[in-house]
Amino acid sequence: MAKRLIPTLNRVLVEKIVPPSKTTAGILLPEKSSKLNSGKVVAVGPGLRGEAGGNHIPVAVKEGDTVLLPEYGGTQVKLGEKEYHLYRDEDILGTLHD
Amino acid sequence: MAKRLIPTLNRVLVEKIVPPSKTTAGILLPEKSSKLNSGKVVAVGPGLRGEAGGNHIPVAVKEGDTVLLPEYGGTQVKLGEKEYHLYRDEDILGTLHD
Amino acid sequence: MAKRLIPTLNRVLVEKIVPPSKTTAGILLPEKSSKLNSGKVVAVGPGLRGEAGGNHIPVAVKEGDTVLLPEYGGTQVKLGEKEYHLYRDEDILGTLHD
Amino acid sequence: MAKRLIPTLNRVLVEKIVPPSKTTAGILLPEKSSKLNSGKVVAVGPGLRGEAGGNHIPVAVKEGDTVLLPEYGGTQVKLGEKEYHLYRDEDILGTLHD
Amino acid sequence: MAKRLIPTLNRVLVEKIVPPSKTTAGILLPEKSSKLNSGKVVAVGPGLRGEAGGNHIPVAVKEGDTVLLPEYGGTQVKLGEKEYHLYRDEDILGTLHD
Amino acid sequence: MAKRLIPTLNRVLVEKIVPPSKTTAGILLPEKSSKLNSGKVVAVGPGLRGEAGGNHIPVAVKEGDTVLLPEYGGTQVKLGEKEYHLYRDEDILGTLHD
Amino acid sequence: MAKRLIPTLNRVLVEKIVPPSKTTAGILLPEKSSKLNSGKVVAVGPGLRGEAGGNHIPVAVKEGDTVLLPEYGGTQVKLGEKEYHLYRDEDILGTLHD
Q1: Is the dihedral angle over the CA atoms C23, C29, C32, C38 positive or is it negative?
Q2: Which among C4, C5, C53 is the nearest to E57, CB-wise?
Q3: Which residues contact D95 (CB under 8 A, 6 or more apart)?
Q4: pLDDT tens-digit readout, C81-97
Q5: Is the per-residue pLDDT at C27 higher than 80?
Q6: How far apart, in Å, are the Cα atoms of E25 and each of A87, E22, E28, E29, E30?
Q7: Coil, strand or helix at D63
Q8: Residue F34: its pLDDT value, please?
Q9: Which residues make beta-bridge pairs with A86?
Q10: Subunits in contact with chain E (3 or more CB pairs closer than 8 Å)
Q11: E61 to chain C: which residues are within 8 Å by CB?
C-alpha cells in the first residue's frame, strides 16, 4: 500500500502535470505547446525554523496549488505506484490560476 | 486558454519590450538605438519572508512599472501564446520613466 | 556490548529499512519496487543552538519516525552488531505514514 | 526621447567624467594625468531593504556627488544619446571634493 | 613536564580511545570490531561568542564525555608524552553511553 | 589642482611611508631593514551601515594613525601628484606607536 | 627604535616560543620533543565590532597568555629586531598552562 509523505521544513511534494500530447479529438499537438512545466502540490512541510527556535517561516505555496516548476532540480520520490517530486519552496517559480 | 501566473517570494514576471527595428515612417533603425533591454512588470510576488516569519520584505518594483533588465539571467515562461520572463527583484536594474 | 549514541546538535541517528527483495510468499520482487530509501529514527540530538546561546532550534523529526532519506549523504556508524546512519535533520526529506 | 532611470535598491547611476586629453590651450596631456576614473551621480536607488522589511539602508552617495569609481565593474546603460553606468553603492570608492 | 591546554571558543580537546586489537584473553580481534572512532573529552572551550559580545554559546559536549568522532578532521596536539586531538564541537557526532 | 577624497563606508585612504633606502648620513641600508609596510591614514569613511539602517559601525582606525598594511591588496589612487591607497578597515593589521 | 603595534579588531600579536634544540646540559633533543607550536601573546586588538556598532566582541585570549598556534597561517611582522606573528583570535587553538 502506498505511504503518505509529510515533507520536512520548507519542502513541497508535487505531482507533475503531464501535458496531453494530443487533443481529446486525437490531433497531435506540436512539441512547443506542451512546454509549461507545472504540477499539483500534494503536501507541504511546516516551514523552516527561524533562529528564535519556536517559530516557523510559512511555506510559500499550499496543498492543492497548481505551481510552475523550475526546469531543473527537485528530488524524485516514488510512493506506491505514483511518482512525485520534492522541491524547496524557494525553488517553485509561482502559482498558476485560470 | 492562457493561465495567469502569480510569482512566489520576490520574483517578478516581466513582458519584454521589443524595440521597433524601423521607425513608423519605415526607416530602418541602426542596431545601436535598439539596445535598451526593458520590459513591463506583469505580476510581482509577495516578497521574501523575513526571519521573524510573519513579515514580507516588499518587492522593489510593482505591477505596471517599466523596468530596465540585466543583459543576462531571467527564466523564460510561456503562458498561452505569450512569452514572459521571471526575475528576482534584486536583479532588476531600475525603473524607466518618460 | 553495544553502546547507545546520543547525537549532537541537529543530528539524527537512523536505522535504515532494508526493503524485502522477495515477498513473504517467496516471489522475487522487481528492482523498481524496492527503491524507497527509508529508515527508522533511533535517536535525535537536542537541536542547533541559536545565536542567543540559551535556546535550541528543535530537530525536525523525532524518535520512532519513519523517514525518507536522501539518496546520498549520511555517516555510517556501527554500534555493536548493528549499522546506523547519522544525518543532519535538514537533509531528511520527510516522514512516512501509512 | 531619452527616458529617466530610477535605480533599484542600492544601485547608483553615474555619468562618467571623461578627462580632457589636451588642455584648453591645446597642449596634449601625457596619459598618466588622465588616470582618475571618476563620475557624477545622476540618480540613486532607495537603498537595500533591511530584514525587518519596512526600512531602507540609505545609499552611501547622493545625487550630484562626484565619485571615484573602481577600475572594473559597473553596468553600461544607454538612455537616449547618453551613456551611463550603474554601480552598487558599496563598489563606489569615495566622493571627490575640490 | 606536560602542560595543560584550555581550548579557545568551541574547541574540544579529545584523547582518542585506542580499541584493543586483542581480547584480554589474548585472542586477536578481527579488524571490523575495532572500527568505532571514539574518544574521551579532556577539556572544552568556553564556547563561541554571540554577536551581542557578552554571551557564549555553550559547547555541545562536556569534560568526561565519551564522544563519537568523525573519520577525518581534528588537529593533532602533543602535550608531554600524550597525544590529543582538537575538534570544533559541531564536528563531534555524538556522545556514547553504556 | 588635487582633489580631496572622502572614502565610502569602511574604506581608509592611506599614504604609504616609503622607508629610506640609505641613512641621512648616506650609508646604504640593507634590504631587510626596509621591510615594514606602513602608512599614514589620510581619510576614513563613515563606516559600514548596520542592518538597522540608521547606524554606522565605526571604522577601526582614524585620520593621522600610522598603520601596518597587509603585503597585498589595496587600491591605488592618484590625487594630483600624490599616490595613495584605499583599504577596507578590516584589512589593516594594526596601528604603530613609538 | 622598535615601534609598538596595537592590532586591529580581533587580531593577536604573538611572539613565538622557539623550543630549545638541546637541554641546558647540552644534550641534543630529538626532533619530536620540539614539536609544540606555541607563543606568548604580546598585544590584542579591541575585538570585532558587533552589528549594533557600539559594542566589541571580546578577543578570546589576553596579553601574557601562552597560546597554542595552528601549524599554518599567521602574518609575519618585524618590529625593530624582533619577529612577531599576527593571528585572528579564532585561529588560536588554546591557552597553555603549567
Answers
A1: positive
A2: C53
A3: D61, D65, D66, D67, D68, F5, F6, F8
A4: 899 999 999 999 999 99
A5: no
A6: 56, 8, 9, 11, 15
A7: coil
A8: 46
A9: A13, A75
A10: C, G
A11: 8
Residue A30 has pLDDT above 70, yes or no: no
Interface contact flag, D5 B61, Cβ < 8 Å: no
| Residues C68 and C96 sit within 8 Å (Cβ to Cβ) | yes
pLDDT at G74 over 70: yes
Residues facing F94 on adjacent strands: F68, G7
Measured distance CA(C91)–CA(F97) in Å, rounded:
52
Three-class DSSP category at D90 = helix
- Give residue F33's pLDDT band: very low, low, confident or very high (50, 70, 90): very low
Q: What interface predicted TM-score (ipTM) does this complex get?
A: 0.84
Q: Where is pLDDT greater, at D86 or B51? A: D86
Mutation target for C interface from E93, E96, E98: give the one with most C CBs within 10 A: E93
- Which grid coordinates are listed for A62? 499550499
Whole-number mean pLDDT of chain F?
A: 87
- Please tell me the distance from the alpha carbon of residue E11 to that of residue G39, in angstroms, as a whole number: 18
CB contact under 8 A, G94 and E53: no
**Are the beta carbons of C13 and C5 closer than 8 angstroms?**
yes
Distance CA E12, CA E89 (A): 6
- Percentage of residues in chain F having pLDDT higher than 90: 65
List of domains in chain G: 11-19+29-95 (2.30.33.40)
> From the CB coordinates, do chains E and F have 3 or more pairs under 8 Å?
no
Q: What grid cell was written down for G23? A: 637541554
In b/e form, how buried is each residue of A71-81, taking b as 16+ CB within 10 angstroms? eeebeebebee
What radius of gyration do chain A's Cα atoms show?
16
- State yes or no: pLDDT of G43 exceeds 60: yes
Residue F90's Cβ-count burial label (10 Å; 0-12, 13-18, 19+) is middle
How many CB atoms within 10 Å of residue G53?
A: 16
Residues β-bridged to residue F75? F86
pLDDT tens column, D31-88: 554 457 999 999 999 999 876 666 888 999 999 999 999 999 999 999 988 999 999 9
* pLDDT at residue C5 tops 80: yes
- Give CA separation, A32 vs A29, A55, C2, E22, F20, in Å: 8, 44, 60, 70, 74
What the block records as the C-alpha cell of D28 is 596634449
**Which grid coordinates are listed for A41?**
502540490
Supply the pLDDT for residue C74.
95
Element (H, E) at D76: strand D75-79
* Contact present, G85 and G12 (Cβ < 8 Å): no
- Do the Cβ atoms of C94 and A8 come within 8 Å? yes
When pLDDT is cut at 50, 70 and 90, the band that residue B40 belongs to is very high
Query: Does residue E23 belong to the interface with chain C, where contact is any CB pair within 8 Å?
Result: no
B74 within 8 A of B94, measured Cβ to Cβ: no
* C-beta atoms of F75 and D93 within 8 A: yes
In this structure, what DSSP letter does residue A29 have?
Answer: P
Neighbours of G77 (CB within 10 A): 20
* Residue B78, pLDDT above cutoff 70: yes
